[in-house]
Amino acid sequence: MVFKKMLSAFGVGGPTVDTVLANPNTRPGLFLDGQVNLVGGDAPANIEQIAVGLVTRVEVETGDGEYAGVMEFHRMGVSGPLQLAPKQQLSIPFQLPVPWETPITDVYGQRLHGMTMGLRTEVAIARAVDKSDLDQVSVHPLPVHERILEAFQRLGFRFKNADLERGHIYGVQQTLPFYQEIEYFAAPQYAQAISQVELTFVTNQQGVDVILECDKRGGLFTPGQDTFGRYTVSHADADRVDWTQVVDGWLQETVNRYGSMRPHGFAPQGHGHGYGPGHGHGRGVGMGGVVAGAALGVAGGMIAGEMLDDAFEGDDGGDFEE
User: Fold this and answer.
1) Quick one: which of 202, 210, 160, 201 has its CA closest to 184?
2) How far apart are CA 179 and CA 201, in angstroms?
3) Which has the least CB within 10 A, 38, 259, 296, 314?
4) Are strands 45-62 and 65-79 parallel, antiparallel or unpaired?
5) DSSP readout, 167-231?
């Protein structure tokens, strides 16, 4: 028995964990239902805690450049202390709420190129190696997201890439420490003015802040610059307006906006609301981002990122092509 306990402390012959999701597909503001299945090892195990959390890959900017780290951005306890007997089978159900700001990973049934999302299960075991499990999760757009994405497609924009940037958008209330950028190559009718557009959704229970960043082309005597626009829409408006016309109006206004916003969040803020004139904004990591980036750890973050990619390799559902 002493020898078995010693082996268990090194993770040999210990409990196993397997989390099963009722449906790995979800949307912001909904839930992920599942159960954590435990099987006891060769010796009794004192479980201290079981928790599940959403993890994703985030780009972090530092003074030395940019690196990708894996961040857990939402966590929930599933069980407190319990004892698992040898070979005992135990299933613990859970229902994890999905934050409204959770980034979109899948559109039209295909994975957005550049996006990774998983549900990580952690089982803390007293005096032994902790156990974990990782399951892929697909986050689909809400109706208002879909209408706006469809409008970009109808206007002729081509999807380029998507990623998550550590930091906060000036003038926008965020609960998560990052924001998503969905990048498009400019549609032909805009190609003379801009090279690409970055689309960001910051969602809450009432609606969505839509942020556009247009990379404006330079002229013969003028340098290129970025222009920004911020627009607020309600979930209730998803089927009430002509989104192609609305998005085209947003883009025209943003492209024609004079000057670029200053970095690090010192941007002037406009006064428009709804579908009208938007709000200027800037983006900056600031001290909060620097501290959080250090907490992730460059080496640890990169290793975790590789592990996350390896876990989902060959199971990404393809890339989103418009």
Assistant:
1) 160
2) 8
3) 314
4) antiparallel
5) SEETT---SSSEEEEEEEEPPGGGTTTEEEEEEEEEE-SSEEEEEEEEEEPP-SSS--EEEEEEE
- When pLDDT is cut at 50, 70 and 90, the band that residue 225 belongs to is low
Interval 139-152: pLDDT, tens: 999 999 999 999 99
CA distance readout (Å), 243 to 124, 141, 154, 289: 48, 15, 10, 34
Reply yes or no on whether the pLDDT at 304 is more than 50.
no
Distance of CA 133 to the CA centre of its chain: 19
Tokens for 184, please give them: 């498009």
The SS3 assignment for 45 reads strand
pTM of the model: 0.78
Sign, CA dihedral 80-81-83-87, equals positive
